[in-house]
Amino acid sequence: MEEKNYKLEIFNGVFFVIGVLLLAFCYNLFLLPNDFVIAGLSGVSLVVHKLTGLNPTIFIYISSFILIIISFIFLGFEKTKYTIIGSILYPLMITFTAPFVVYLIDYVSFSDTILTVLFAGVLFGIGSGLVYKCGFTTGGNDVLMQIMNKHFKISETKALMFMNVIVIGFGVAIFGFEKGVYSIIIMFISSLLIDKIIYGISESKLFYVFSKDARKLKKAIFEEFETGYTILPTKGGYSHTNGNLIMVVVTNRDYYKFKTKILELDPKAFFIISDCYEVNGGVKRSNLPFI
Asked: Using CA atoms, how far apart are residues 284 and 4, in angstroms rounded to an integer?
């Protein structure tokens, strides 16, 4: 068990560093040269640079250090320890990647702004997704978000949205509406990728089915879809009638076919469908006794 955890920590550490490296390249290659004010210290640094002339990287160094202290005071060591490494590593990586960007900029400077926005969104999304998946953050908004959640009882989602609106709003006011729209597109693309990296890509659908003709449905699950199912005892909240709920996982390619089959066998069947990101164990095609 210890060996397994040790390997997992190394694995997470490597991908965390790769994630921060990608974020630094994204900042130097796309955000800084094009004045794309996205959320977090990356966006605030561009606004401060425009208003005061302060070097954006210096601002990130100073702000990260201040936010670490604030996090210690308001959140304690346990919450802060996952932020310290990212808060220090991110500005260091920005400094480290800056010389390489001088050589790469000619190859990634697109005349089409949409291509630039697309690449920025993808790079930022992959980098952020790797950082979050490994259980770390790069500080910035994450610290303020947790403080607002703990001391002002504001949900982390609302706190994050509030801060994003403020930062991007300043970007629009200073760099113009068009730049603001591009920044929002980058945030949208990156958020989609972050979710996919953290949660994975759904390869299956999970069905919860209540049918008065459950016998035919169970037979179809075995014979036509070649998979197993689980029976969950239920009781109607209104009718107080006892019954059974069938839980079954099917592949995405069988999703529509299975849904159609349910309605074919019982047009009045009640069912719920959700994405299923991971399936382990259970009865599958490979171990059904009659396959």
From this structure: 28
